[in-house]
Specification:
about 130 residues; mainly alpha
């Protein structure tokens, strides 16, 4: 049985991994700047860095897993590229919006909405694949 390497979604995972590294470094630098080692200590810029990083950590793993599963189940590369690119754009927009304000921003809202859309489309594709196979 051949092993399928989800190389298209792996590329998007790598990009999201680099974004996670960037957001982590921003939190570290914020902690060094403020000398706050736990929480945000009431420092709004540090809170924004922490929230941008946490939001990526909360949303990206499940969305990325769904995209990987879509690829593994045999979806065309164009579909996987579309989902992966949309997820990266969504997470970049969200990180940018959260880095500007902890309140509502158009970037944050667009990022959240696009992430949910990627998860919904991926989930529906997976359900279709599973139901069509049986």
């Amino acid at each position: 049985m051949p092993v399928l390497i989800p190389s298209v979604s792996a590329a998007y995972a790598a990009v999201l991994g680099l974004l996670a590294c960037l957001l982590t470094v921003r939190v570290i630098l914020g902690r060094v700047r403020t000398n706050i080692q736990a929480g945000d200590g009431g420092d709004a810029p540090l809170a924004q860095c922490i929230r941008a990083h946490a939001n990526l950590a909360e949303q990206a793993p499940l969305a990325l897993l769904l995209v990987v599963l879509v690829e593994i189940t045999g979806a065309p590369a164009g579909v996987v590229h579309g989902l992966g690119a949309a997820l990266v754009i969504a997470r970049l927009a969200s990180a940018w919006g959260l880095s500007r304000s902890l309140g509502q921003t158009p970037q944050r809202q667009a990022g959240a909405g696009l992430t949910v859309l990627v998860m919904a489309v991926s989930s529906l594709l997976l359900l279709y694949h599973v139901l069509a196979a049986h």
